[in-house]
Task: structure prediction
Amino acid sequence: MKSALMTNYGSPELEFDHGRGSYLYTAGGEEYLDFAMGIAVNCLGHCHPTLVRALTEQAGKLWHTSNLYRIGQTERLARRLVDLTFADRAFFCNSGTEAVEAGFKIIRRYHHAKGNPQRKRIIAVSEAFHGRTLAPIAAAANPLHTEGFLVGDAGFDQVPFGDPDAIAAAISDTTAGIVIEPIQGEGGIRLVPQSYLEHLRQLCDQHGLVLMFDEVQCGLARSGTLYAYQQTGVSPDILVSAKGLGGGFPIGACLATEQVASVMVAGSHGSTFGGNPLAGAVGNAVLDEVTGPGFMDSLNDNARYLREQLQGLVASHPDKLEKITGAGLMIGVKCRINNGELIAELTRRKMLTVKAGGNSLRLLPALNVNRREIDQALQILDSALRNWQTA
Result:
């Protein structure tokens, strides 16, 4: 039967019936090793018992009241995120792109409240990805995403990735802030050097700008620390989080310092479903797991092992692979062969991965992936490369 869905996702044929841990299963029982995890969303794998229990218990009590009333689960989640980060305040929504939108609004509102409404332009870098609503696609300015949707630049300026001088040159008396991913996801799993982030912090302090980090994909332990900025010693004024924050349940968060968050007075922004009791319960359960004893040590041990083994595959297949990038369990495999064709071959071999920019393959396993699963993934990838001529 012809699908009634819009075709913006193409026409995928593969469908899954259920999942457990690092595996997905079709209705016919075929098993797939999942190293995509819903594009870094299912941070603890599929149907993690702690998350299932938290969601089920909350579902039996209360689903939704709106933010006209206090929500205990959400208050607790906000307090925990604040205590674990640079932030003083949190705003909850349903997705990464909504969190980004909230961050952009705060940046502009901050200058408006200070009596400088002309300061509304935001600087972003090339090959970025900040979401699919209008302001985020304007920030990234990818023609594939903006065509037919935008008129003008919507108040955003783009500079080349990795060029600190270009950032400095782009600042004017209408600039309000700078947004950047500490680790680019869609752009090819590229780390922003610490010195570059330090330079951005200095520029923002010097010019009175708001610095915003987009950690929708690299956040929530994906990079090897709870948030990637914590590895750099550079704190933003705003940080946006989503994906792994809900372990598969939709939730986004915009975290901010008191200085910038204070401009968001009653009625300035909102979300009907954002921070509902279900999302709050699951978000707290995710934090319980990732901040639990030994979790980060195990994650980083497995991440080091996976990266070392992948470096070995690069050495074994230098005509097909170029290099390994990323941090923690957010890993890029830069290819010499076509990344889309490699992904298709891995899927045929029952392993799921994700495409990224720069002809890269994204590996985003569950944060609690084990060595046996890692070795299985490495064996599948090695076999696909060894047999590439006959693939």
